[in-house]
């Protein structure tokens, strides 16, 4: 029998979104809804498991963790790319890493939720109304404003299209973006400095990598208008969070909408929780019924293939393993 651990199932929905019984009696499934950050505690928890199922970067898998799990043979992640997994270490330790295909544009939708919540003070007004107050703030319209997109891939392009529908001026920059690709999404290519200085709303849509980590620094934030907002639904480490906190506290920018953070779950003592000019969500970008309902059935298929001696949707390649 293969022992399978599902990690970080915060909403405790995994078992209801796929036909796990189809794996009986060959697999025993254990769900963990809580998050463990300590590697030693995590290794102790996972020591008996042959298969571990991850949801993107919620639980990192560095080399030191692989080396503490001699029974681990199969690691499954949502998405075909997970920057928190040391795939070289996985290969060296004989662990097959597989991924699932995500679909939809849920993160683009959430991005617009953050933008509208910021500009129309939706969270503030909701809380005020619950306290018995009526109309306490003055909102700002998006029409006619400049939307700056740091990154114009699949999700960034969708955010751009919605910006055009809102009659916004859309500008964009990324290291490899061309004029033609920007125009295809309804955006104008500008220099990075211009992106930050011209944008009324600066939204980040880049993949986290060694090149993009810390890409948004204090100098970039200093170029932003005092009336501008920063939105990050990509990955926390792309932004220098110390510099962002300083800008928000000093109100050199108007506010920020953040779905992602360098440390997740966000600690209770984190300063972001104490600010009144932010809208915070707990990494909800891809957390939808549709995405989960697409992901977990693929996990079952991958486990079934593994039991049958096959490798389905591999991310790494183990010597002598049939693909």
CATH architecture of the largest domain: 3-Layer(aba) Sandwich
What composes the largest sheet? Answer: 7 strands, parallel
Task: Compute the average pLDDT.
Answer: 96
Fraction of residues in H or I helices: 25-40%
Task: Give the helices and strands, then pairings.
Layout lengths: L1 E5 L20 E5 L7 H8 L4 E4 L8 H5 L6 E5 L8 H6 L3 E5 L5 H14 L2 H9 L15 E5 L3 H12 L3 E5 L5 H6 L3 E2 L2 H7 L2 E4 L13 H6 L5 E4 L8 H10 L4 E4 L19 E3 L8 H19 L16
Parallel strand pairs: 1-2, 1-3, 3-4, 4-5, 6-7, 6-9, 7-8, 9-10, 10-11, 11-12
Helix pairs in contact: 4-6
Structure overview:
The chain is of the alpha/beta class and 323 residues long. The chain folds into 2 domains: 121 residues, Rossmann fold, CATH 3.40.50.720; 175 residues, Rossmann fold, CATH 3.40.50.720. Helices cover 32% and strands 16% of the residues. It has 11 helices and 12 strands. Strands 8-7-6-9-10-11-12 form a 7-stranded parallel β-sheet, with helices on both faces. Strands 2-1-3-4-5 form a 5-stranded parallel β-sheet. The longest helix has 19 residues. The chain is globular and about 60 Å long. The model has no long low-confidence stretch (mean pLDDT 96).
Short summary of the structure?
The chain has 323 residues and is of the alpha/beta class. 32% of the residues lie in helices and 16% in strands. It folds into two domains: 121 residues, NAD(P)-binding Rossmann-like Domain (Rossmann fold, 3-Layer(aba) Sandwich), CATH 3.40.50; 175 residues, NAD(P)-binding Rossmann-like Domain (Rossmann fold), CATH 3.40.50.
């Amino acid at each position: 029998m293969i022992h399978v651990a599902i990690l970080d199932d915060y909403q405790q929905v995994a078992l209801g979104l796929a036909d796990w019984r189809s794996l009986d009696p060959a697999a025993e499934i254990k769900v963990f809804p809580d998050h463990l950050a300590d590697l030693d505690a995590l290794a102790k928890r996972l020591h008996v498991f042959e298969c571990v199922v991850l949801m993107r970067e919620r639980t990192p898998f560095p080399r030191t963790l692989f080396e503490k799990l001699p029974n681990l043979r199969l690691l499954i992640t949502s998405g075909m790319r997970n920057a928190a997994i040391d795939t070289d270490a996985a290969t060296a330790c004989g662990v097959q890493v597989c991924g699932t295909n995500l679909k939809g544009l849920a993160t683009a939708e959430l991005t617009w939720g953050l933008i509208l919540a910021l500009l129309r003070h939706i969270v503030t007004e909701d809380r005020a109304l619950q306290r018995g107050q009526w109309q306490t703030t003055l909102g700002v319209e998006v029409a006619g404003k400049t939307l700056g997109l740091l990154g114009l891939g699949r999700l960034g392009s969708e955010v751009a299209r919605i910006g055009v529908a809102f009659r916004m001026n859309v500008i964009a920059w990324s290291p490899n973006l061309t004029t033609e690709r920007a125009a295809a999404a309804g955006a104008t290519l500008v220099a990075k400095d211009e992106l930050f200085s011209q944008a009324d709303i600066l939204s980040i849509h880049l993949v986290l990598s060694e090149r993009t980590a810390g890409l948004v620094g204090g100098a970039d934030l200093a170029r932003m208008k005092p009336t501008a907002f920063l939105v990050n639904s990509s990955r926390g480490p792309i932004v220098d969070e110390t510099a962002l906190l300083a800008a928000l506290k000093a109100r050199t920018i108007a506010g920020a909408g953040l779905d992602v953070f360098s440390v997740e779950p966000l600690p209770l003592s984190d300063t972001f929780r104490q600010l009144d000019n932010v809208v915070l969500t707990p990494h909800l970008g891809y957390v939808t019924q549709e995405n989960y309902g697409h992901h977990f059935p693929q996990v079952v298929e991958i486990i079934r293939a593994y039991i049958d001696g096959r490798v389905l949707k591999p991310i790494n390649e183990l010597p002598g393993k049939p693909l």
